Amino acid sequence: MTSTRQDTPRRAVETVALGLPTVRPGAGSARPGQAAAHGPGTAPRVAPGLVDRFGRVATDLRISLIDKCNLRCTYCMPADGLAWLPRSRLLTGAEVRRLVRIGVEDLGVRELRLTGGEPLVRVDLPDIIAAVRGDHPELPVSLTTNGVGLAKRARELAAAGLSRINVSLDTLHAGTFERLARRDHLDEVLAGIDAAADAGLRPLKINAVLMRGVNDHEAPELLEWALGRGFELRFIEQMPLDADHGWRKDDMVTAREVRERLRTRFRIEADRAARDGAPAERHRVFPLGGGEQLGTVGIIASVTEPFCADCRRTRITAEGRVMSCLFSREETDLSALLRSGADDAEVADTWRAAMWGKPRAHGMDHTGLGDEDFVQPDRSMSAIGG
Ligand code: SAM
């Protein structure tokens, strides 16, 4: 195991005043989350779930099934792709199933998202979904995909037990798609979206990243298209997670700009309902001239209006490493444990310890994205699992 998190505090609870919720002091000297089930005489379980030093509890599990992708989006991948993991290093379907079971049964995970790379590239995707669904009939299981090949597989995925789907779509124009994704697949993606909607994979969410001078002018058009089909569009601020390290804070399209662009065609109102840990700030959308609500739009302002204090995510990479944060520079290997015969309790404890060290925000305890001492992680979004 190559855990880099050996420094987990021995004290069960600490109060850290950084504007974040804190773990309430409790009895016992166990490590946070130490499970009572580990045997008689152990300390009471003070934090059964994936709690961190700031009192956040991760209940939303994202597992990357593969690092490989069939697009080369400029904000994520280099033109020539990356050195893909050999198949032997990818979590097997059985390992994914076991991690989900440990997450749900021992660590309080309440929802699962399968991602990548491109998860549709995994031929055993329906089997993985069916196995998880068999173990956890009530667990919401969603998929994030670029939609390439989805038209052929949407029904099979729904039948296997997938609850819903997010499809990434940054543009409605073939030339712009090719410029952004370096591949000519727009029609295929649009067909995949229709097939997913027909298969009942709803609510269907569309993820869009806007790049200045490329597709940022398309914001209102994308929203009109999504509203007309009953999809929820979410704009995601571009984060410094591109393999080319070309991200510049001054050049990214901000949430504020997205709102301004949308207001040229719609009236949008921030939704007062509690955000409840969701990354997207939802806005209700109305026609400019007045009238009934047309739908909603989400804006994920990870850079300019970060929501780290509410983060509930725990991520596992395609090779089985826990990343407590997208920007974390520390990873904890669970696959070595799985492959060396560790029991569930050992895996759960290691996972808990990894999450205890979750940084305050954006991979750090003290600074923000794009600040002088921000260091971009080596992994791109595709190699983490978005
Ligand atoms: N291949 C799948 C897809 O395209 O949806 C799943 C993986 S992809 C990494 C997940 C999401 O991350 C996509 O919606 C993509 O647009 C987004 N993404 C990738 N790089 C990003 C970046 N640098 N900033 C913001 N979002 C990014």
How would you summarize the topology of this molecule?
Layout lengths: L49 E2 L5 E2 L1 E5 L28 H15 L3 E5 L9 H11 L5 E5 L4 H11 L3 E5 L5 H8 L4 H13 L6 E5 L9 H11 L2 E5 L18 H8 L3 E5 L10 E7 L7 E6 L12 E4 L4 E3 L8 E2 L1 H5 L4 H13 L24 H4 L2
Parallel strand pairs: 3-4, 3-12, 4-5, 5-6, 6-7, 7-8, 8-11
Antiparallel strand pairs: 1-2, 9-10, 10-11, 12-13, 13-14
Helix pairs in contact: 1-2, 1-9, 2-3, 3-5
Bound molecules: S-adenosylmethionine (SAM).
The site of S-adenosylmethionine has 20 residues, from strand 5, strand 7 and helix 10.
What does this entry show, briefly?
With 386 residues, the chain is an alpha/beta fold. The protein is built from 10 helices and 14 strands.
What do you see in this structure?
This protein is of the alpha/beta class and 386 residues long. The protein has ten helices and 14 strands. It has a twelve-stranded mixed sheet. Bound molecules: S-adenosylmethionine (SAM). S-adenosylmethionine (SAM) binds at residues 69, 75-76, 115-116, 118, 144-146, 168, 207, 209, 236, 238-239, 241-242, 381-382, 386.
